[in-house]
């Protein structure tokens, strides 16, 4: 999953460069992706993820990786993060 946030699904967008003379040329807007290691409290281990910088703020706002994953929509998560979410559900029960 290149250039895509593993937790929110945020990816590359396209648009136009617009000059002063209103000439339009196509361009790409790339997400601000960061390779980070987040600590899962319930699993007691670190999890390496490739996430957007805006997602890091959202994770902190929701109370950590575990709370974020349990409330996240499965369609937005990568396959690897769905597996981590499944592990969290097993650890919670």
Notes on the protein architecture:
The strands form 2 sheets. A two-stranded antiparallel sheet has the order 1-2. It has helices spanning 53-62, 65-71, 79-92, and strands at residues 13-18, 24-29, 33-40, 45-52. The protein is α+β, with helices and mostly antiparallel strands. 33% of the residues lie in helices and 30% in strands. It is built from 3 helices and 4 strands. The radius of gyration is 17 Å and the shape is elongated. The chain has a single domain (13-92), classed as Roll (Ribosomal Protein L24e, Chain: T), CATH 2.30.170. The two termini are 31 Å apart.
Strand-helix topology:
Elements: E1 13-18, E2 24-29, E3 33-40, E4 45-52, H1 53-62, H2 65-71, H3 79-92
Antiparallel strand pairs: 1-2, 3-4
Contiguous uncertain segments of 5+ residues: none
Average pLDDT works out at 95
Shape: elongated
CATH architecture: Roll
Main β-sheet description? 2 strands, antiparallel
Spatial arrangement of strands, main beta sheet: 1-2
How many beta-strand elements? 4
Helix content: 25-40%
Order of helices and strands: EEEEHHH
The CATH class designation is Mainly Beta
Secondary-structure-based class equals alpha+beta
């Amino acid at each position: 999953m290149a250039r895509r946030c593993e937790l929110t699904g945020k990816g590359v967008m396209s648009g136009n460069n617009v000059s002063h003379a209103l000439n339009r040329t196509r361009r790409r807007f790339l997400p601000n992706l960061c390779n980070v290691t987040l600590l899962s409290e319930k699993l007691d281990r670190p999890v390496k993820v490739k996430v957007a910088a805006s997602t890091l703020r959202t994770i902190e706002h929701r109370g950590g990786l575990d709370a974020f994953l349990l409330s996240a929509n499965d369609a937005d998560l990568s396959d690897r993060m769905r597996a981590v979410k499944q592990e969290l559900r097993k650890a919670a029960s």
